[in-house]
Amino acid sequence: MKLTKTIALAALVAGSLLAGTAESPAQDHTNSPPAHGPGLRGRPNLDQIATDLDLTADQKAKVKAVLDEQQTKRQALQEDTSLTPEDKRAKNKELREATQAKLKEILTADQWEQWQKRMQRNRPPGGPGGTPPPSAPPKE
After folding, report:
1. Pairwise CA distance, residues 41 & 55, whole Å
2. pTM of the predicted protein model
C-alpha cells in the first residue's frame, strides 16, 4: 500500500503544480478541459508554489517544463494498455523519482527542504485508499 500512497502523492504534486499554469487568471477556460481531476481542486498552483518557494523566473520555467513532461509521460503511461498494473506502478515510480531528481537539481537546498515539507503537509493521513495511522490510546 506504500506504493499507492507514493503514486497518489506524485499525482497530487503534479496536479497541484499544473493546476495554475495559465498565463492569466482572467483567461477564459470554457473551451479547454480542466488541467486536473476533481479531487485536486483548491490545491495551490504553480504561481503559488513559486511564491512559497521564492522561485526565480528561470526556476519557475524549469519547474514547469519538468512537471509538464511528467504529466505527459504519466498520461501516456496510463493510456498504455499493453502494460500490467504492476508494470504501470513500477514505471510511475521511476517517473516520479526522475521528476524529483530533476526538481532537486533546479531548487536550492532551502527550497528543496521547503518542497519536502510542503509535500509532507499535503499528504493525507494514511494516504488515499490506505488505512489511517493508528490512533494513540486515550490518556488516563
Report:
1. 23
2. 0.57
Give the chain as a DSSP string: -HHHHHHHHHHHHHHHHHTT--S-TT---TTS--SS-GGGTT---HHHHHHHHT--HHHHHHHHHHHHHHHHHHHHHHH-TTS-HHHHHHHHHHHHHHHHHHHHHHS-HHHHHHHHHHHHHHSPTT-TTSPPPPPPPPP-
What gap in Å lies between CA 59 and CA 62, rounded to an integer? 5
| Average pLDDT, 10 consecutive residues per value, the chain (140 residues) | 61 57 45 40 70 92 90 92 93 90 93 86 59 52
Integer Cα distance of 60 and 36 in angstroms? 19
Q: Which set of grid coordinates corresponds to residue 46?
A: 504553480
User: What residue spans define the domains of the chain?
Assistant: 2-18+42-121
Cβ atoms of 17 and 63 within 8 Å: the answer is yes
On the 0-12 / 13-18 / 19+ scale of CB atoms within 10 A, 125 is exposed
